[in-house]
Amino acid sequence: MQNDHNLRVSKADLKKMPPRAVPLPDRFANELKAYNRLLQTNVCENGFVPRPYGWFIFTGFDDPYWQTKQNGGLPASPYDEWLKDFKEEMRSPRALLLEWIETPRLKTPKITADQFRCIFKTLEELHRARIMHRDVSPRQFFVRGSKVVITDFDAAIISPPDSDVDMVATTMEVRDALWNLFLKEEYM
């Protein structure tokens, strides 16, 4: 029998964020803050964004515990394999553990009218949670059943929960979605 406090994840997506890709403001901290709000407002639970399972700061890779043996018996570390992009960084890498989304990314220009409505419903849910995504593009969307899921909140603006919705910013984000998802390829 599984206890409620135990988390079992059969598949998850580990979003690694190298420090050099984290200019001020701290994009990792911003994404954590966004997912906290998305959890509080049930946007994750309602399936519009992937569920976050946790976050990590990887430290101590010079510890012998992390060392493995490569073919030939030479010591190796995670920096030689799956964290090689972080090998030269001054700060330890950080990562979010997110729900795995099995379905493919949204394909443009093959977006259906139903998917189009789902995209705007997803953006509406974000705006209701007082989050402006600020990076609406096809690579951020996945189709899951009857919903369109959006990812990547490191550039988002998170407003106080009791603030008014900024209609100008909301309109601009919807305009950007329309351009990036439908018109950009046609005019480029």
UniProtKB/TrEMBL annotation:
Transmembrane segments: none annotated. SUPFAM superfamilies: Protein kinase-like (PK-like) (SSF56112). One of its GO terms (molecular function) is protein kinase activity. It comes from the Eukaryota. Pfam families: FTA2. Residues 1-188 form the Protein kinase domain. InterPro entries: Kinase-like_dom_sf, Prot_kinase_dom, Sim4_Fta2. This is Protein kinase domain-containing protein. It comes from Hericium alpestre. The lineage of its organism: Eukaryota, Fungi, Dikarya, Basidiomycota, Agaricomycotina.
